[in-house]
Amino acid sequence: MPERFVEASEIERDAMTEPPRISRPVPAEAIAALKAVVGPSGYIDQAADMIGYCKSWRDDWFGKTPLVLRPQSTEEVAQIVKICAAQGIGIVPQGGNTGLTGAGQPRDDMTDVVLSTARMKAIRGVDTVNDTITVEAGVVLKEIQNAADGVDRLFPLSLGAEGSCQIGGNISTNAGGVQVLRYGNTRALVLGLEVVLPDGRVWNGLRGLRKDNTGYDMKQLFIGGEGTLGVITAAVLRLFPKPTASETAWIAVDNPEKGVALLGHMQRSMGDAVSAFELICRPIIDFLLSGVPGHEDPMPEPHPWYVLMNVTGQGAPGSLHEPLSEALAAAFEQGLLRDAQIAASGAQAAKLWKMRESLAEAQVAAGGSIAHDVSVPVSRIPEFIARADAALAAAYPGIRHCAFGHVGDGNMHYNPVRPVTTSWENFRVERGRINRIVHDLVVELGGSISAEHGVGRSRLAELAHYKSPVELDMFRAMKRALDPQGIMNPGKAVPM
Ligand SMILES: Cc1cc2nc3c(=O)[nH]c(=O)nc-3n(C[C@H](O)[C@H](O)[C@H](O)COP(=O)(O)OP(=O)(O)OC[C@H]3O[C@@H](n4cnc5c(N)ncnc54)[C@H](O)[C@@H]3O)c2cc1C
User: Fold this and answer.
1) What is the pLDDT of residues 423-435, one digit of tens each?
2) What one-character DSSP code corresponds to residue 124?
3) Do 367-453 and 20-118 fall under one CATH topology?
4) Is the CB of 140 under 6 A from ligand 1?
5) 170 touches ligand 1 (CB under 6 Å)
6) Over the stretch 213-223, which tens digit does the pLDDT of each residue have?
7) Mutational test site, ligand 1, from 58, 68, 97, 100, max ligand atoms within 8 Å of CB
8) What is the DSSP string of 243-255?
9) Which CATH number fits domain 20-118: 3.30.43.10, 3.40.47.10, 3.40.50.300, 3.40.50.720?
10) What's the pLDDT at 14?
């Protein structure tokens, strides 16, 4: 690849992620005081043991810290934050560290401590009349789903990393996942929060209310705030009736136009029973089948695009099978689909969803991709994919197209994979230029450059580029109002 393509925004990115330096290094007496707060089992200070806290899930962001703190209570978090505030020490809140934007790692100069919520694992209460569950920030998402299931309820947030991501991280990234279509993203699932503010005060907003019109709704600032405004320590979450009927279908379609038309058809036929609707291109299925063990092609013939769909409801088990078959048959008659299979068992459905959850590994196996987590109005998804594919093919002959995502929400993971003849090192330096081609198109189509993964460090320069000066001013005003010293997750999410 030509040298000149080493892109500007990579350089801008480095400049923008250099926040004003606060204190360097973290003073020894502060480290001793912080250790005293959590006791010997509540911190890690050996470099080898801190590696997992300092690098990102995709191995694309690294940092260094003198100390990882693992408090067990809100009170300990508050004491930690007070010490850091007094000394101007950066704090990086961290949950399961599965985030994909470089938001959860410290900077590289030992000026930040990492505050892991991994030991804040209590489920404080379940109210099956109010349909709420109150949990601490470090509870793993899967454990919340299981706890809800145990009282015959559903906590609908569901995503590939659910076995390791924590609810504090889910809230701080306003995570989306596969059931947004029916239940909304994390923002729609949170009723109340408890937060340690950047000066160490505790805000108890743990209200289980569906209506509360008493002025500014402060919790909304911390949802999706990526740890830049405070440390979330607990949350009240909404529960839902557990579906008693569920069907999963794997459907072959000609192209994204047909996929989007099929979505409309299914929603008109089955209403909000359509709880998940994922569009998946064939190339990534090929990457999966050749590179990740344990998967098999669900259909005998390959097809250019697929939809993975769930329908769920409250009827008798199996009661959705017939309406689903009829709706799919009508779609076939209308030329909206090529072939469709309804999973014959829960195990088969789980296998199909396992394929969907393994698509991140498939890209790694294919040699590495440049990720875009974008949204456009659902009606414009086909145009977006066609134009992005054409523009990238012209700029990078041999680039391998790879798009999949939560099409029901207009959210695509558009992740072109390097040409087989180009090394990853030569491809990755193109990131900024590729981002610009894709994001210019997204913005032209009225979309967002980050649909569900957030901003972190990887989208910071892009945010500064695309947001209006007015909106950026509001971001900065909010950050300065709550965190005037800039100690909360410095250098992430807010271009200062
Ligand atoms: C295989 C895979 C699939 C994924 N699929 C999806 C998907 O479908 N949809 C989606 O939205 N995301 C997805 N993600 C991204 C990721 O899982 C989510 O962003 C998740 O919500 C992060 O949770 P975490 O606990 O790992 O947070 P972390 O990665 O630890 O942190 C993420 C951000 O939240 C902040 N933070 C963490 N805890 C707190 C706290 N208690 N208080 C304040 N700030 C905090 C961190 O500082 C950081 O800014 C996926 C990731 C992987 C690896």
Assistant:
1) 999 999 999 999 9
2) E
3) no
4) no
5) yes
6) 999 999 999 99
7) 100
8) PSEEEEEEEEESS
9) 3.30.43.10
10) 38
